[in-house]
Amino acid sequence: MRLDTTKFCALTALKALSLMFAAILLAAPSAARDYRPALLASTQYTYDPANEVDVELVLAVDISQSMDTEEQEIQRAGYVAALTSREFLEAIQVGPIGRVAVTYMEWGGVDEHFIVADWTVIRDASTAAHFASKIAEAPLRQVQRTSIASALEKSVHLVQNNQYMGLRQVIDISGDGPNNQGGSVTEMRDRMIASGVTINGLPLMMKSNKNTWQAMLNLDHYYEDCVIGGPGSFAIPVRSKEGFADAIRMKLVMEIAGLRMPEPEPYYHTVSARDPIRCNLFD
Questions:
Q1: Residues β-bridged to residue 170
Q2: Cβ contact 229:199 at 8 Å
Q3: CA trace torsion 164, 168, 169, 171 (10° rounding)
């Protein structure tokens, strides 16, 4: 009889403890109980299909002192013509989503970055014309130094902090000289590429016959060795004012369509067939 009483007391105590534990759970704040489901629910509804684009593209344009007013005007006109061209608009339609997000930034020295046209989704002629008009109507400005390193860092920051979700992220950087401020351009390039972007270049060599340092430097080789990088990266040099608009249009079409540069003819000097550029020569 004493054994049965002991078992009965043990069972009663166990039930009491179970009831107390259940009461504690029921009395706990609902926010604590539902923390994981609430967290999952909040992340699920941040997705917006309207923000999906084929490419997030930063047009990073040099406005350093070496770019005179005429060259800046040619540069602006070239981008406006390229962004509204039939070829560019057709390239957008080739993508699986059929729209791209683009921003136009002018840059010079360290922390000298000016957003001329903020992030805009381009899907057709109307949206392209609206974006291009912001570029055409903005006043020209000029700064002294050339920090490609700082421009790359700012460009990637723009990509990482916008609202869009692109299948690809591309930095399109143009300039007429080497990095001369802001630390090592190659170290910055490598850091930025590690974040997943592709960096393409547009070396401006319209003064190569007049400017001895630019001719000596071989700016196109400098961009190939020291600036561009990432999957499918390429550089298209601009050697004349007349060819500026065509070069930009070709470059934008390739970037939007995800095309690669064709293999060079045998008589061209490839990177492996020439001496490497000293990237830190001006850093």
A1: 57, 198
A2: yes
A3: -140
pTM of structure: 0.79
Question: 212 by DSSP, 3-state: which?
Answer: helix
Phi and psi for 53 in degrees, rounded to 5? -140, 160
What would the two tokens of residue 74 be? 């040619």
Could you name the CATH architecture of 52-258? Answer: 3-Layer(aba) Sandwich (3.40)
- Cα-trace Rg, the chain: 28
Other Cβ atoms less than 10 A from the Cβ of 16: the count is 10
Express each pLDDT in 154-203 by its tens digit.
Answer: 999 999 999 999 999 999 999 988 999 999 999 999 999 999 999 999 99
63, 151 in Cβ contact below 8 A?
A: no
Q: Which amino acid is at 136?
A: A
Closest Cα to residue 54, out of 253, 236, 234, 199? 253
Q: Are 216 and 183 in contact (CB under 8 A)?
A: no
Strand 198-203 vs strand 52-62: parallel, antiparallel, or unpaired?
A: unpaired
Query: What are the backbone dihedrals phi and psi of residue 62, each rounded to the nearest 5 degrees, phi first?
Result: -70, 130
Angle at 256 between CA 250 and CA 175, to 5 degrees: 55
- Cα–Cα distances (Å) from 78 to 240, 242, 251, 281, in that order, read 12, 10, 11, 30
